[in-house]
Write a structure and sequence with these properties.
Two copies of one chain form a homodimer. Chain A has 488 residues and is α/β, with parallel strands linked by helices. Chain A has helices at residues 7-13, 30-43, 56-63, 67-79, 97-109, 117-124, 146-159, 174-186, 201-213, 229-236, 253-263, 284-297, 322-326, 354-368, 373-384, 387-412, 435-444, 475-487; strands at 83-86, 90-93, 196-199, 219-224, 240-247, 250-251, 267-270, 300-304, 331-336, 348-351, 426-430, 450-451, 464-468. Chain A is built from 18 helices and 13 strands. An eight-stranded mixed β-sheet of chain A has the order 3-10-9-8-7-4-5-6, sandwiched between helices. Chains A, B: One of its GO terms (molecular function) is DNA-binding transcription factor activity.
Chain lengths: 488, 488
């Protein structure tokens, strides 16, 4: 049986703040308002597909509007594909979600040996509730600040509507790049706005850099373990990916020197601070050694610092940026706001030598023209008005508490947490089981995990698992996981 | 001498609608409001660099606020890099624009033989007023509707703030893809939402398709003339670009068959409707012949339909989409909203076979994860609420009038317009002079033109010039151009 919802009750009890259905004071026609209110609730899945709407008479009575108004509104929602009319039975929210599920259901059903980078990448985007995704790489909404972003967006729509009509600058919104200059200066990295270009997240930044440096057959070094999406991205370019083992305070530099001599890589991509997935950070002596090896063998270092703002300061965990030593000669520094502000704004950036920044900007023009300045203006506003700093402080506090809770739970179920980093959003746990197998068991119960094999440049079997400490608040997960460990 | 502005006068007389400086009723502190109001005016260049601000006392008196408030606001604007304090002289808007100018001034100074794709691409992004850019590929703001976009943005910030925090779906916002399904159906192209993926403009769409099909050394066919940015984009991939001469009703099919037999291309990229730069459109018999040749030689057709919505209907100019014949078997259809709604939203899309759409979505994930859903939601709202259709009707009317005016002016100065297409935003004029030389003369006077050589796949010299009919409203341009023609 399908449910009939009473729209006003629904709107009032919704978890997400929703505007009232309509207002007599608005400039818009009543029917327009009703159409918009219902359409947006359907688009945002507040009204789910299959839900039966009140009858025309019920709706008219409940809201004190004429039946003609309701008829027109429902008709328009049928035309726009939001509702369907079932003969003799009334109006229903049209089935829309199955389209996504159809496109994404296959990977979910794959057996363990098919768990791969694309599998996880696709599943990360499934419409699972965040608390069902302990393997996610993003923070759940509770740690972020939707109002901060929404307010900035509103203020942009009021203050600079014309700016959205034309293209932004090819290197990105200049005031944002000036803010980034200040931000980098705090990390002792000196970069003029000409040395900075915005990108559609760190992913595009990496893609631009990789396309600039790598020819098919070239070698690129990455951390081992490392962020899995890169492997696919480099493979797409025909590059050979080799992993440099990660130790607690950074890459294994002996191994790095050895492999560099042997393979003559073009690039070494590394997270200096809050490495994904271990949450370890780089020590100063290692930073210096890496730079010397890079100079000796002539490769560039791509320092992906996307977790930068989650780091609570060197008193808790030393954290060195190689770019601070090198000042963007041999280091290409990447950053962004997907993790700490809002992933959907797609704002990342590259800081590099002036010459390289210019070459990368040309490449950006040729592959996607510009980024949307909407996101860039939002980030600029939030940074320049000081809101970002306060938000980050709150976020760090919440993250610390979530991390403590997670480590306690892991201890409780008998997993060793002694080698865990003290900070960051990830815990890299040794499950002492086949993590792919655990992932399959979890998927069958509707939990998305991130098994260690994915973070291995060659997808080698692993007993490690990356947990997102902020996505583990559901006690049901721990009950499931304890049982799964016992069974696996 | 620098000017001192009276802020309130300025705010009231501004061409762009601006919010009042502050409101006692606002929840924000007065100083915050003043900081924000001034900062956004500076960011948007409403207050230009070098402008002197009222003294602290003047400002306090004019606005009835305390001097402490003004001191704090000015101080914070100095800290944020918006103002600078000059000893003994007061506060000035800081020099910011020169950074952009420095980055972009070099191409402007290049001699004629260095006019190339990157030159024009960079110059398109210069902060010239639109009426100074008859060579621009975008419509000026008067033909677009900033309020439409701003309203949609506001409504998204109110109704779906949480949606912005996480990633959108890898294929794009589903309700938008459902709207695109309806839009394509009107063109007789049948595509399910699974067959559609959003991209960061048509540029990223082309890049994804090209990276999927092309290996270094492969051949790609383009129209000759064609949109210049493509040449750079394909060259970046190491592909060989060959032009198919464009006749009034589409590509020269005899030549196409001949060259296909000879070069065995992987792709043929073409504008069927309102071809850039000629504004010609494809006839049905030619569409059929192109498809047969593609089948015979096994290449794919990339149908870039970015100008789709400017076309006034087949009664004025026949316009056939190859995808309507082929139903996305051998045709990859591209579209977007940069030209007709707002370039800065960066919303384009690909429609292709289900299998290909899936492969391209994986490639999109690996190269930039997702697009910003902000833009996608704006486009969705504007489409689904019926505003887009009305906007397009107004736009077509304005375009028609601008086109008539332009053709009259060209006639008047003695250029032949007999072979001009009757519709579209571009006129492809034969100047009977070296168009590169005219472009240099124009650049010296501050006008950006688009010479024919840029649209030639091999940048061959040309006497043709692409004019944007909507960017020619300044009589000063026609005075300049008439003189330039006489002199060149």
């Amino acid at each position: 049986m399908t449910n009939t919802v009473s729209i006003p009750t629904f709107a009032n009890s919704s978890a997400q703040p929703t505007a009232p259905l309509f207002s007599r004071a608005s400039g818009l026609r009543l029917v327009e308002q009703i159409v918009q209110a219902l359409a947006s609730r359907i688009d945002d899945r507040l009204l789910r597909s299959g839900t039966r709407l009140p009858s025309i008479r019920q709706f008219a009575d409940q809201h004190g509007v004429s039946r003609f108004t309701v008829v027109e509104a429902y008709d328009r929602l049928v035309a726009s594909g939001h509702l369907e009319s079932r003969r003799g039975s009334g109006f229903y929210v049209r089935e829309r979600a199955p389209l996504i599920n159809a496109a994404l259901s296959k990977p979910e059903e794959t057996a363990g040996n098919q768990i791969d980078v694309v599998w996880l990448a696709r599943n990360m985007f499934r419409q699972l509730p965040p608390q069902k995704m302990p393997g996610s790489g993003l923070l759940p909404n509770e740690l972020l600040d939707a109002e901060l972003v929404a307010n900035a967006l509103r203020s942009i729509s009021r203050q600079a509507p014309n700016a959205l009509l034309q293209y932004g600058g090819p290197q990105g919104f200049l005031p944002l790049r000036q803010q980034l200059q200040l931000k980098l200066a705090e990390l002792e990295i000196s970069a003029t706005p000409e040395q900075i270009l915005t990108t559609s997240g760190v992913t595009q930044a990496l893609d631009l850099v990789a396309r600039h440096f790598l020819q098919p057959g070239d070698t690129v070094f990455v951390d081992d373990p490392a962020w899995f999406l890169m492997f696919g991205s480099f493979a797409m370019l025909g590059a050979r990916v080799i992993g440099i083992p990660r130790t607690q305070d950074g890459p294994d530099v002996t191994k790095l020197a050895e492999l560099a001599a042997q393979h003559r890589p073009k690039l070494f991509v590394t997270n200096s601070v809050l490495h994904n997935p271990t949450s370890g950070s780089l020590s100063s002596p290692k930073a210096f050694q890496i730079l010397k090896i890079a100079e000796q063998y002539g490769f560039y270092i791509v320092e992906d610092d996307i977790y930068c703002d989650m780091h609570p300061g060197s008193a808790v965990q030393p954290a060195t940026r190689i770019a601070a030593l090198d000042q963007l000669q041999r280091v290409i520094y990447l950053g962004g706001f997907s993790k700490t502000l809002a992933a959907n704004l797609r704002v990342g950036f590259i800081a590099a030598s002036t010459e390289l920044a210019r070459a990368l900007a040309d490449r950006k023009i040729l592959s996607s023209l510009t980024c949307s300045e909407v996101g860039e203006r939002v980030v600029y506003k939030v940074l320049s008005e000081g809101h970002y700093r306060k938000h980050i402080e709150r976020l760090r506090g919440k993250l610390e508490r979530a991390r403590d809770r997670t480590l306690r739970q892991l201890d409780r179920i008998g997993l060793d947490t002694a080698d865990s980093a003290p900070v960051g959003m990830f815990v890299w746990t040794d499950t002492r089981r086949d993590a792919n197998r655990l992932t399959e068991l979890a998927m069958a119960e509707g939990w998305l995990l991130a098994p260690g094999s994915l973070f291995s440049p060659h997808q080698l079997p692993s007993s490690r698992m990356r947990f997102n400490v902020a996505a583990l608040s559901d006690p049901a997960f721990w009950r499931f996981f304890e049982q799964a460990l016992a069974g696996a």
